[in-house]
UniProtKB/TrEMBL annotation, chain A:
Signal peptide: none annotated. InterPro entries: AAA+_ATPase, ABC_transporter-like_ATP-bd, ABC_transporter-like_CS, MetN_ABC_transporter-like, P-loop_NTPase. Its main location: membrane. It is a peripheral membrane protein. One of its GO terms (molecular function) is ATP binding. SUPFAM superfamilies: P-loop containing nucleoside triphosphate hydrolases. This is ATP-binding cassette domain-containing protein. It comes from Marinobacter orientalis. Residues 4-215 form the ABC transporter domain.
TrEMBL record, chain B:
InterPro entries: MetI-like_sf. This is ABC transporter permease. One of its GO terms (cellular component) is plasma membrane. It is found in: Cell membrane. It comes from the Bacteria.
Length: 216, 488
């Protein structure tokens, strides 16, 4: 079960309502792209969904949430800390097991950065950091992907590669994207957010970039 | 300029110190102070490293006590930091760190005697309180985002190890290393109450007029602290920590009967032991307060306020010595050496030396406190001033100092000064043991007269005074919106 229903959703910052009230229902197999101007409430909506599903999702937040002092391996491994016993996690912190190292390295190879596995996250470039956060979400291997601008720091070909990978690995996803082309190419459903409200909700095959532009 | 709150605060504190000077006992009472000072400096430049065989042992013991005490303190402090949110824990930590290492040593000496445990606990207990506070501040500042991203069902320990510790690790390591340096100083002065560390040999060398021996000890101590980064390596640390307990010396065995007697009889207030009971407590406490606590508090506060302002003046004068905006590399290097010496000499040793040379009065204490603390703040401010980028046509010389640099560093200067206020007061109280009439003097006399009940009450009063000044210092820093980092 990876779909969810949200009704009467609201969020306020400092007494000012930024989201809702809105309702959104996502069924298993939906690939939702959240589009809209910056500040429209996309990030808030993503974190609200994250709370609503009680963390049972692979999340790529906009600020990535990497632990800078840890190596890339451990940052990726953190996606599955719940799957292992505490003693196993503690040992892994000191000396990773070969099985996990292989798995993480394979993931990083798919993202085009296998040589970075033992490098501290602090010394990575912006694009590399973003891919580490994506690797963590992939390693987490949950049914639902929640991602906030996951390819904003990547160049064109890498962005396509990552979006393709995310499409392959996650049956259900909600991705905030400001790139309309990517949204139409990799998502099945476009949800436009304007002033904290849903202003558009259509299957992507019915839409062209021109239909989405008024939102910006 | 008078409208600036920081300037007004500075002027008020200066005025208080000037009024304090009227009441303070400032004098050079020694018959021949300059000749003695000359002989001391002659001793420092002609050090004799081989006269006392005890020198090497004293250094070894100093290092061993520092390592065991700081290691134990950091482990306990870390555990306390995990529950630091609880109010009783905060109070407990504030209380144990408000009592100086030497006071703890004096307490433990009464029932553990000259057992190594006395020295270890004297360092470990106050350091636990300090570590708990600083570690918890560091842990609180860690980025909370990675923790929020963890899959639900992640164990508490795993979450802490992955999402919390790595972010704080470098800062905690830096702070612990800094504390180790402080621990070496604490360990050295524990010798002044009879433990087998450097202070013990320094005192005996001084009392016999062996200035070259004293000079050798001081020089070795500076070398020990200055080379700390070279011999304290992360990989060697387990070796040191595990090995240190074996080099504490044997001391004297603990007599457990003394321990029991101390808690059941010695520290019970005299009226409760006698026939008067609780009805006699009022007069007993009142008498103690008027004859000892009040004069002790009065002298401690006066001395603290004078030393605080003197510290500020020294710091402002000293920071250009290492600032890149003045002088060439030669002057800066000598400035660095000078400030490292000021910083590495414990104020207690400095006060002891000056007291031997100038005779008893508040003057040696003020000078010692001002030189040590002024050296520390001057070093920090100097380093900060070097990171300021001046416009190419900025004025030079005194104009550069007064117009470009001092206004820019003044706020952090004040922040450091108010942060050290409580530390200066804690030290002022303890300098009483050397014969200046601050609270430490009355504590020490009570112990010498075997009146441990009175000594405990006086120590409690000293601790409350320190906590009060700490709270006041924090209030003023908040009021003036001054920020500071814990490593100072």
């Amino acid at each position: 079960m990876s779909g969810f229903d949200l009704t009467g959703l609201t969020a306020s910052f400092g007494g000012e309502r930024v989201i809702g009230p809105l309702s959104l229902s996502v069924r298993e197999g939906d690939r939702v792209a959240l589009v809209g101007r910056s500040g429209a409430g996309k990030s808030t909506l993503i974190s609200l969904i994250h709370q609503q599903v009680q963390g049972h999702s692979s999340l790529v937040p906009q600020n990535l949430g990497l632990v800078n002092a840890l190596q890339v391996f451990h940052n990726v491994y953190m996606g599955r800390l719940d799957a292992n016993a505490t003693w196993y996690n503690t040992l892994t912190l000191i000396r990773p097991f070969a099985k996990d190292a292989r798995e993480v390295k394979a993931l990083l190879s798919e993202l085009g950065m296998p040589e970075k596995v033992w490098i501290p996250a602090a010394s990575l470039s912006g694009g590399q950091r973003q891919r580490v956060a994506i690797a963590r979400a992939l390693y987490r291997n949950s049914d639902l992907l929640l991602a906030d601008e996951p390819v904003s720091a990547l160049d064109g070909p890498s962005a396509h590669m990552v979006m393709k990978l995310l499409k392959q690995r996650f049956r259900t996803s909600v991705i905030a994207l400001h790139d309309v082309e990517l949204a139409l190419a990799y998502c099945t459903r476009i949800v436009g957010i304007q002033n904290g409200q849903i202003a558009l909700d259509e299957p992507s095959e019915k839409l062209t970039p021109a239909d989405i532009m008024p939102l910006y | 300029m008078l409208s600036s709150p920081t300037v007004r605060a500075s002027l008020i504190f200066t005025a208080v110190a000037l009024v304090g000077l009227v009441f303070a006992d400032i004098a050079i009472t020694a018959a021949n102070p300059w000749k003695d000072l000359g002989r001391f400096f002659l001793g420092v430049v002609t050090p004799d490293f081989f006269s006392t065989e005890g020198l090497a042992t004293a250094l070894l013991r100093t290092v061993a006590f520092a390592f065991v005490g700081v290691a134990l303190g950091s482990v306990c402090g870390f555990l306390l930091a995990l529950v630091y949110r609880a109010y009783p824990v905060r109070i407990f930590c504030a209380f144990i760190r408000a009592i100086h290492e030497l006071f703890w040593a004096l307490i433990f000496l009464q029932f553990f005697g000259f057992h190594p445990l006395t020295g270890v606990l004297a360092i470990a207990i106050p350091y636990s309180g300090i570590f708990a506070k600083v570690y918890s501040e560091i842990l609180e500042e860690a980025d909370p985002e990675p923790g929020r991203l963890l899959p639900p069902g992640t164990g508490v320990v795993s979450a802490f190890l992955y999402a919390r510790i790595p972010d704080c690790w470098v800062q905690m390591r830096t702070y612990t290393a800094y504390r180790l340096e402080c621990g070496l100083r604490s360990s050295a002065i524990l010798g002044f109450v009879g433990l087998p560390t450097l202070g013990f040999y320094l005192e005996s060398a001084f009392s016999q007029g062996h200035y070259s021996d004293a000079g050798a000890m001081l020089i070795l101590f500076y070398v020990l602290i200055a080379t700390l980064p070279l011999w304290v390596r992360p990989k060697l640390l387990p070796v040191y920590v595990l090995g240190a307990p074996f080099f504490l010396g044997d001391g004297m065995p603990i007599v457990w009967g003394n321990v029991a007697r101390f808690f059941t009889q010695d520290i019970v207030p005299a009226p409760l032991k006698g026939e008067e009971g609780w009805s006699g407590m009022g007069t007993w406490l009142g008498d103690l307060f008027i004859t000892q606590a009040l004069p002790g508090i009065w002298n401690t506060v006066i001395l603290t306020q004078i030393a605080l302002v003197a510290t500020g003046i020294i710091a402002l004068l000293a920071f250009p010595l290492i600032s890149t905006h003045f002088g060439g590399p030669v002057r800066r290097t000598s400035g660095h050496v000078f400030l490292v010496i000021l910083r590495s000499t414990p104020e207690y040793i400095l006060a002891y030396i000056l007291l031997q040379l100038w005779g008893p009065s508040m003057l040696p204490a003020v000078v010692a406190l001002a030189l040590h603390n002024g050296g520390i703040i001057g070093h920090l401010i100097g380093r900060q001033s070097s990171s300021i980028v001046l416009r190419p046509d900025a004025p030079t010389g005194l104009d550069r100092y007064t117009y470009e640099l001092v206004p820019r560093v003044y706020r952090s200067f004040l922040a450091f000064l108010f942060y050290r206020w409580e530390i200066i007061m804690r030290e002022t109280a303890i300098l009483g043991i050397l014969g200046i009439y601050t609270l430490g003097f009355y504590v020490d006399s009570a112990i010498q007269n075997i009146q441990f009940d009175k000594a405990m009450v006086l120590i409690l009063i000293t601790a409350s005074l320190n906590i009060g000044v700490d709270i006041l210092g924090r209030f003023i820093r908040k009021k003036l919106a001054l920020q500071t980092m814990p490593t100072c």
